[in-house]
UniProtKB/TrEMBL annotation:
It comes from Myceligenerans indicum. Residues 167-260 form the Acyl-CoA oxidase/dehydrogenase middle domain. InterPro entries: ACX4-like (IPR045008), Acyl-CoA_DH_CS (IPR006089), Acyl-CoA_Oxase/DH_mid-dom (IPR006091), Acyl-CoA_Oxase/DH_mid-dom_sf (IPR046373), AcylCo_DH-like_C (IPR036250), AcylCo_DH/oxidase_C (IPR009075), AcylCoA_DH/ox_N (IPR013786), AcylCoA_DH/ox_N_sf (IPR037069). Keywords: FAD, Flavoprotein, Oxidoreductase. Coiled coil: none annotated. This is Acyl-CoA dehydrogenase. Residues 54-163 form the Acyl-CoA dehydrogenase/oxidase N-terminal domain. Residues 1-35 are annotated as: Disordered. Its cofactor is FAD. Belongs to the acyl-CoA dehydrogenase family. Pfam families: Acyl-CoA_dh_1, Acyl-CoA_dh_M, Acyl-CoA_dh_N. Residues 272-419 form the Acyl-CoA dehydrogenase/oxidase C-terminal domain.
Length: 426
């Protein structure tokens, strides 16, 4: 069972903030002594202690996988704009992809744990987090929340085991923030078959995913519906978007749908309009907040390592006041953002999370992320723009994370609607 948020584990007691470990001291980022074995220095208030012992073991397994398998190749794959698809199955074998769905035989876990796993991915590579999250978050959540029992049984175990990779096709060339009204992809029913026509853009994993959840507007009733489109279906074409400067590992694609035929059995049976789609987006928006948190933690840790090693005027630059001010600001951003992510996840577990809760988290955490990665790059001076020094990739990737799953502006307006009772979207 997931640990009650009111009863954190006592096995890890954080050191008093009055005597933090010096950033100039040589230290292991994976097992720092200041928080207890298995705790990150960036987890300054020991939020990880809210996880159950089993969840903490799984977090450590994910962290070790990322350090062993992904960190050594991340810069190389990022520079080549290629995705290490071969790591999807080994990662799935850790058993975290199916947590939260009854059909996957995974252990029952908390939303805090599931978010923490995403943070651990992004802490090493935000692109890899997106690659995994598109399939296990957006695609699986669409099927888990919108699929029939038969659809859930058919797809969720296969996706949790890594045998099937998913993608999520909502955004269009002319519809981003206004998908509720502006969706142009259409679905027309002919007996037991639906015919899809339209285009999608920025669809991660679409060039290699086994199944893509396509969202389209029913020409009969004008309502948004979801469809499971298999790779290779006639009329379905996915073309990789080139020349990106953010999340380069992610294989985003332009999709064209020309007379694509989908059986009624492959329509998500519990999706009856945009309101149902919005429930999926609310949950996955939380995931982006955790991803932004991981991105800023990765940049912060890289800055700590660099400033401890880089010497100027005969001393490590970490010993100078201006650098320490930057590091303290970054850690403050991380700590505040971690608090927001944890609380919103707890609200999800309690069944009390609202659109405004998720929107505030996404807007706040991604804004703090943007400031943090900029401070990390600044702390590394000119070397901060080079991949070899650990910060540049986070700095570039943060721009995409800042934008997707709703821009800051749109999420702020969702919060504003909650405050005032007035919608200011148009």
């Amino acid at each position: 069972m997931a640990l009650s948020p009111a009863t954190p584990q006592s096995q890890a007691t954080p050191q008093s903030p009055a005597t933090p470990q010096s950033p100039a001291t040589s230290q292991s980022q994976a097992t720092p002594q200041s928080q207890g074995a298995g705790f990150l220095d960036a987890d300054f208030y020991a939020f990880q202690s809210l996880l159950t012992p089993r969840e903490q073991e799984s977090v450590l397994a994910v962290r070790e996988f990322m350090e062993r398998e992904v960190r050594p190749i991340a810069d190389e794959y990022w520079e080549r704009a290629e995705c290490p698809v071969h790591l999807f199955k080994p990662f799935a074998e850790l058993g975290t992809l199916g947590s939260g769905w009854a059909e996957t035989a995974g252990d029952e876990t908390s939303a805090v744990f599931r978010g923490w796993v995403g943070m651990e991915l992004a802490r090493v590579d935000s692109s890899f987090c997106t690659f995994i999250g598109v399939s296990s978050g957006l695609a699986m959540s669409s099927i888990g929340m919108g699929g029939s029992p038969e659809q859930r049984a058919r797809w969720l175990p296969a996706m949790a085991s890594g045998d099937v990779i998913g993608a999520f096709g909502l955004t269009e060339p002319l519809a981003g923030s206004d998908t509720a009204r502006g969706l142009r992809t259409t679905a027309t029913r002919h007996g037991d078959t639906w015919v899809l026509n339209g285009a999608k853009r920025w669809i991660g994993n679409a060039t290699f995913a086994d199944v893509v959840v396509i969202w389209a507007k029913d020409t009969a009733d004008g309502q948004v519906k979801g469809f499971l489109v298999r790779q290779g279906t006639p009329g379905f074409t996915a073309t990789k978007i080139e020349r990106k400067q953010s999340l380069r590992i992610v294989q985003n694609a332009d999709i064209t749908l020309e007379g694509v035929e989908v059986a009624e059995a492959d329509r998500l049976q519990r999706i009856d309009g945009f309101r149902d789609l919005a429930k999926v987006l609310r949950v996955t928006r939380d995931g982006v907040s955790w991803q932004a948190l991981g991105t800023m933690i990765g940049a912060y840790e890289a800055a700590v390592r660099y400033t401890a090693q880089r010497e100027q005027f005969g001393n490590p630059i970490a010993s100078y006041q201006l650098i320490q001010d930057k590091l303290a600001t970054m850690l403050g951003n991380v700590t505040a953002s971690l608090g927001v992510c944890v609380r919103v996840a707890q609200l999800q577990d309690e069944g009390r999370q609202t659109d405004a809760h998720a929107a505030m988290a996404k807007a706040f955490v991604t804004t703090r992320m943007r400031e943090t990665v900029a401070l990390a790059r600044e702390s590394c001076g000119g070397n901060g723009i080079q991949l070899d020094h650990g910060v540049a990739r986070y700095f570039a990737d943060a721009e995409a994370v800042y934008t997707f799953e709703g821009t800051k502006d749109m999420n702020q307006l969702i919060v504003g609607r909650s405050i005032t009772g007035h919608a200011a979207f148009v």
